[in-house]
């Protein structure tokens, strides 16, 4: 699935501010496996996504698979906007 | 049926394999491993440990994500007479190296990327989880677990191991300094499993979800209780709420152990749980901090057929108290009554029993009292002291643990938690010392002085506040310091609030940073 940069940009900025310590993060970098994103932080990220993109993320969407990388998160947002 | 004695962790594994060799011991994703698989892998790995120079009393670290290999490695170390040291996979190289150096590990069993990240100081000997040894200069003496498991189990003679031998070292933070290793004997581990399995009424029909890290005494306990009774341990790497709920359903989990943040996440899934109730879940247990009363009430509503056990334990004595599920509404700070086979005392400064309602220090006496802190006689002498009530004719002291936790006992004998005597921070179920946080802050190179403390937090027990003085004339923002911490420390250790202080921090007459004065100035 292709996802436009307008979705990935704000996600990347949020991650750099809150998870990676300012380090750039690529679309495919494994966020959870690399210990950058935890289950507690994801609650804040979900709130950010809902506000930023005007989507509703269902409880059962808050899984590692959907938050594994910027690509995965952007695809989730895209599905919710559809 | 023949009586099967249990003196060691590997006795549990052998007994389980003999009772029910094809029973499922471990589930990891779509993979299932029987008790025979577990014992077989552990025996092969134990032989390899001995072949690679591991001897009785040596330390073997396990630095890996949860996996069947990580579980088998604990049993393997036990068979080889070595103490296993579970290193939390969340730890970065800086914290992991402290542990490996502190207890001078002989060999590490770990994930390739984690071992490679240790750089120059990576261990000489390692078994790498997976099929390939990473391409790093230190990897000359490393081999893969896959190779190890292909070896003949009987090729090296295993030592005689008994209950007074060391079983494991668990690193935990105190009120000062970097983490210390609490040493557990085989007896501590076995009796800890027996006590907890007794009051949770575990049987071989249980399927226990392992969400917490094995590096945490309470997290290791799900494994040891499952192994003792022949229950199935389901490994759960993700603590994301949707994943936890999927696993609870898919594997029809009967027992779930968590720390307060997990319950906060589950409560947020209320509608999901209302629509599709978790009917298999027989019990949940909490430890590692107080669950907010509102969350307990909500869990009772969402899980009407599930028993809720609120537990309290300090790593130095494994487990101490629990509040049985039929006891409720004794107040949010109630930690219940002593676990079986254990005395919990509330003592005043003169070492006398406190009257009901009077606040004193929680002191633990029983068979789970550990052997002390590895290589730290002074710290050990402070926490582990002779039983003050022992009959005077006994020539040898019996060690009891002075917890540093302040509690009181009510008229019905229930204990209530008040707080800490010292500066120890309890956050997200973890114990963190102020110095550990300050070490990370100074390690960023951005600050010259730092003082960290805990502040009450409704969701996380406490959150960490740090007051820092920028280095030299540098202009540094709190955000920059925070970002640098994120790179060098696990998420739970990163201060939630960072305050920049101009000038030097307040000092005590002896010249140390005056923690109380800093706290008073910045806690508001």
TrEMBL record, chain A:
It comes from the Bacteria. Residues 1-81 form the Carrier domain. This is Carrier domain-containing protein.
